[in-house]
UniProtKB/TrEMBL annotation:
Family to which the UniProt record says this protein belongs: Belongs to the flavodoxin family.
Gene name, Swiss-Prot/TrEMBL: nifF
Protein name (Swiss-Prot/TrEMBL): Flavodoxin
Domain of life: Bacteria
Organism classification: Bacteria, Pseudomonadati, Pseudomonadota, Gammaproteobacteria, Candidatus Competibacteraceae
Gene Ontology MF annotations: electron transfer activity; FMN binding
Length: 174
């Protein structure tokens, strides 16, 4: 079984594309991808280490598929889980709601007792407001395929260097 479950929501496919790139940065079989549209609490429960990725849609909202998936979070013992988050957004189009969904989802998992890793500096982004900023940092990796796609590869590389060892060191849930 894969060591890490990577769960993602996507509307136009950008987040799925990033999820696939992340999977490729690990050894064969280490990461399993799950679109939240087809995932369950049991799918999450089998991992100790998880990655979640989401775009922000509407005006600073979770994608509909992720909202529909929220009840499944109740079926998981989050106290035994470590989670790294990434979020996609558009800082020019939505400077007042930039990657809000990342912050909204972070707060839900935090409240449920998960250990969250992978915070990310706000340097290099231009925006006014974001729910994903906590204590001056983004709560996960932030990618902007609409305006800064050229930076995605190096941002991913740097972030994975940070979270990969910790995620891989976690034993498979028993
Ligand atoms: C209708 C719509 C609403 C959006 N609202 C926001 C928003 O509030 N904040 C933000 O940062 N990005 C917003 N975005 C930008 C998306 O998050 C961004 O394009 C992302 O890469 C889409 O990922 P996906 O292809 O996986 O759905 C919006 C995009 C669309 C099409």
């Amino acid at each position: 079984m894969a060591k890490i479950g990577l769960f993602y929501a996507t509307d136009t496919g950008n987040t799925r594309k990033v999820a696939k790139i992340i999977k490729k940065q690990f050894d064969e079989g280490e990461v399993a991808l799950h679109n939240v549209k087809d995932a369950s609490a049991e799918d999450m429960a089998q991992y100790s280490a998880l990655i979640f990725g989401t775009p922000t849609l509407g005006d600073g909202e979770l994608p509909e598929t992720l909202t529909e998936f929220l009840p499944a979070l109740d079926g998981v013992d989050w106290a035994s889980k470590t989670v790294a988050l990434f979020g996609l957004g558009d800082q020019q189009g939505y400077p007042d709601e930039f990657v809000d969904a990342l912050g909204i989802f972070y707060k839900k998992l935090k409240k449920k007792g998960a250990t969250l890793i992978g915070s990310w500096a706000v340097d290099g982004y231009e925006f006014n407001k974001s729910k994903a900023v906590v204590n001056g940092e983004f709560v996960g990796l932030v990618l902007d395929q609409d305006n800064q796609a050229d930076l995605t590869e190096e941002r991913l590389e740097e972030w994975l260097e940070q979270v990969k060892p910790e995620l891989l060191s976690l034993a498979v849930a028993g």
